[in-house]
TrEMBL record, chains A, B:
<dbReference type="GO" id="GO:0003676">
    <property type="term" value="F:nucleic acid binding"/>
</dbReference>
<keyword id="KW-0963">Cytoplasm</keyword>
<protein>
    <recommendedName>
        <fullName>Asparagine--tRNA ligase</fullName>
        <ecNumber>6.1.1.22</ecNumber>
    </recommendedName>
</protein>
<dbReference type="GO" id="GO:0140096">
    <property type="term" value="F:catalytic activity, acting on a protein"/>
</dbReference>
<keyword id="KW-0547">Nucleotide-binding</keyword>
<keyword id="KW-0436">Ligase</keyword>
<comment type="similarity">
    <text>Belongs to the class-II aminoacyl-tRNA synthetase family.</text>
</comment>
<dbReference type="InterPro" id="IPR004364">
    <property type="entry name" value="Aa-tRNA-synt_II"/>
</dbReference>
<dbReference type="Pfam" id="PF01336">
    <property type="entry name" value="tRNA_anti-codon"/>
</dbReference>
<dbReference type="InterPro" id="IPR045864">
    <property type="entry name" value="aa-tRNA-synth_II/BPL/LPL"/>
</dbReference>
<keyword id="KW-0030">Aminoacyl-tRNA synthetase</keyword>
<dbReference type="InterPro" id="IPR002312">
    <property type="entry name" value="Asp/Asn-tRNA-synth_IIb"/>
</dbReference>
<dbReference type="GO" id="GO:0004816">
    <property type="term" value="F:asparagine-tRNA ligase activity"/>
</dbReference>
<dbReference type="GO" id="GO:0016740">
    <property type="term" value="F:transferase activity"/>
</dbReference>
<dbReference type="GO" id="GO:0005524">
    <property type="term" value="F:ATP binding"/>
</dbReference>
<keyword id="KW-0648">Protein biosynthesis</keyword>
<dbReference type="GO" id="GO:0006421">
    <property type="term" value="P:asparaginyl-tRNA aminoacylation"/>
</dbReference>
């Protein structure tokens, strides 16, 4: 018999009486002499399915003694229970034990701390919290693909292994196949990377943006969605060494188009997750973050505000006693400043645009004032910055001058400058850290709890 | 005015007469004294749009002289041309030059070899062949997500950075942030990797399968889709150091379920690409691989065959004079053997199952004969193996014994063995190399031409 997913059963309960087979893991078993109840979870749904069994089962005693975490296949009849807390249950005709769970199973029925669960990352997706977080992660990833594909964007896999440092910033991981104990050396004693796998020294990418720009100059609208790496030795709840990033890039477009795209994408993804993971979000709203649903609804339904950096600084300066970090024109905004703007001043998501060029990357388009660049950050309540983007400098002379000013080597950017020589256009894009988005949607405050097997400074287990 | 994509215009041409704006890159310009024609491509479609312009344009002379590759915005009226080769054209009211293209533009109108195009990977997506290949790549990637999500699979991001070697095989890239010139050393002179970023030596993943199994034991049905790495120093048209892989894993399932899933997925993806990239496939069928469409249709419409390895060997032994490599029970199948089976013997896709355990990975489920394992490879005409999968060994004692036999360290697999201790189930999965799939769908014979910026031994440019 075909297996029925518990999610599909709850979504289409039918009229009752049909015979089905469900397979899953036992969350609890309780029994009296002649009847027993199992809470069964198959991972397709947040909800457990109640299985009722009785002494008609040949293996009643075995089933009644099943350990938490055991896997079973149940064939039985669907019974609608409109008066009960759960709309239906299954009365078992046969229950087959697929795999017993030893009494040492670490997920016995009690609350576990998130810290403890990280030590059993191979088992923790079976818990309510991590299971729900990773289902939301999957649905949100699909929503992102759906959003861009429906608009005709081309999905691009930019390289993970790279010889360049896209942002001119960020600590990188070096990749090598050399024998490090005994590396080949040049005459001056330095390591001869021309003998390495790629014939030179290479790193893991920190951003696919520059390559994404090349693709946007062919396809008009592209997006990337892939892993990105930072070797920053910072042990915070918001930083991982390996995380996924979404980076769209659009041609024939300016900063206003960029903000529209970011707004539409965020609203689309939030709405899609709210429509497709209602049980998960209700759980997070109840147990993790009481204001969650209200906040998400707020974002989906509100207009987004817009301040220039210069306006934002003027506002912040009036409240400078509220902040730990000093506020002045030219300073980088700290999370406390960002949250104040979006939570206290605007009370909704807000784009802050036109930052001083000194605090932004070399490729951002210089504004006519000669001091600021066409950058935009999207700030949202509860988090601060969630998206950072910009219009890119498409003017060859200005971009070349900027590269010189910053002491970068123009020959390293020859192909990037080519994009400005051969049919370059106005264009822009942004980056969205996928884990930050999932933290925002779930209310989970540690990035380690929204990644199946997190990689952070000092930790690469499993 | 909103920009219209050329793809959308061809799909919904309307009644003609409507005013629109299109933006794109000039493929050709020709003009007589008073009228000119531009072939415009915006990357959304394989097709070019014909722009007609005349001396009513203020900048007629400038436009007539435009270099190939220049980017322009055109506002004008749609004119239906049912008699002409193209169903419609646009009569320009204004043409704005977004970015001129210098005369040194490498993609002048003539044929370029694929080898040459690889040297200008930042510009080659603007060509017919590479543009079409990367659009197919994007659509196929989406089809894969759509297929699994519609069936309720959870998309899982397994780690890229790993302390383990999943298959016990495959050369790996080492990752480090140590100063290689002057690494910290232990007393015996060896490098002290406990000082490295993760506190130990780590590599880039060769497969997400083991982690995928942990996730399948929570969600029942999962898939991965992410980059994978092999540091094999092989310079062939079919190997890249960085490639993307899809690895589904299903619980409560055996090898028959695995084959069904593989078959359904392949058929779904091929059909989706045929429905959504008809122009691209027609182009490939005409210029790259004349049997392409017939072969793809064959796969979508045929039943798939099934042979055991033992049956396959018996067939191959009868034709042993046809092969370079010897055939005997226990040998690994070479591409020439695989292609013979699917092209000459079965004349359709065929699953070969139940291989000798010695030539397969440690985690594959031992059959009752004690000699073979529940492995399956899918062979398709024109390629040979495109998918490799297996039922996994869920029995703790047999798996432990196999790990011992192979001299592997059980403590390295402690968490993997846990999955067999706590509610383990029958389960299986497979791996599909995404680039191999794109080569198969497009007929392109070199993996470097289906990856935006390929990474191969000796080459990590851009």
């Amino acid at each position: 018999m075909e297996r029925t997913l518990i999610k599909d059963l709850f979504n289409n309960p039918g009229t009752g009486g049909q015979e089905i087979t469900v397979c899953g893991w036992v969350r609890t078993v309780r029994d009296s002499k002649s009847i027993g109840f199992i809470e069964l979870n198959d991972g397709s749904s947040f909800k457990n399915l109640q299985i009722v069994f009785d002494t008609e089962l040949e293996n009643f005693t075995e089933i009644a003694k099943l350990g938490v975490g055991s896997s079973i296949s149940v064939t039985g009849k669907v019974v609608l229970t409109p008066e009960a807390r759960q709309p239906l249950e299954v009365h078992a005709q046969t229950i087959r034990v697929e795999g017993a769970s030893l009494p040492t199973y670490p997920l016995q029925k009690k609350r576990h701390t998130l810290e403890y669960l990280r030590t059993i990352a191979h088992l923790r997706p079976r818990t309510n919290t991590i299971g729900a977080a990773l289902r939301v992660r999957s649905v949100a990833a699909y929503a992102i693909h759906k959003f861009f594909q429906e608009r005709g964007f081309v999905y691009v896999h930019t390289p993970i292994i790279t010889g360049s440092d896209a942002e001119g910033a960020g600590e990188m991981f070096r990749l090598t196949t050399l024998d490090l104990q005994n590396p080949p050396r040049l005459e001056d004693g330095s390591i001869d990377f021309s003998k390495d796998f790629f014939g030179k020294s290479v790193n893991l990418t920190v951003s696919g943006q520059l390559e994404g720009e090349a693709m946007a100059m062919a396809f008009g609208q592209i997006y990337t969605f892939g892993p990105t790496f930072r070797a920053e030795n910072s042990n915070t709840p918001r930083h991982a060494a390996e995380f996924w990033m979404i980076e769209p890039e659009i041609a024939f477009a300016d900063l206003n188009d960029d903000m529209e795209l970011a707004r539409d994408m965020i609203k689309y993804v939030l709405k899609y997750v709210m429509d497709n993971c209602p049980d998960e979000l209700e759980f997070f709203n109840k147990f993790i973050d009481k204001g969650l649903l209200e906040r998400l609804n707020g974002v989906v339904n509100s207009e987004f505000d817009h301040l220039t950096y210069t306006e934002a600084i003027k506002i912040l300066e009036k409240h400078k006693d509220k902040f730990e970090y000093p506020v002045f024109w030219g300073c980088d905004l700290q999370t406390e400043h960002e949250r104040f703007l979006t939570e206290q001043v605007c009370k909704k998501p807000v784009f802050v645009t036109d930052y001083p060029k000194e605090i932004k990357a070399f490729y951002m388009r210089l504004n006519d004032d000669g001091k600021t660049v066409a950058a935009m950050d999207l700030l949202v309540p509860g988090v601060g910055e969630i998206i950072g983007g910009s219009q890119r400098e498409e003017r060859l002379d200005i971009l070349s001058k900027r590269i010189d000013e910053l002491g970068m080597r123009k020959e390293d950017y020859a192909w990037y400058l080519d994009l400005r020589r051969f049919g370059g256009t106005r264009h822009c894009g942004f980056g969205l850290g996928f884990e930050r988005l999932i933290m925002y949607i779930t209310g989970i405050s540690n990035i380690r709890d929204v990644i199946p097997f997190p990689r952070t400074a000092g930790s690469a287990e499993f």
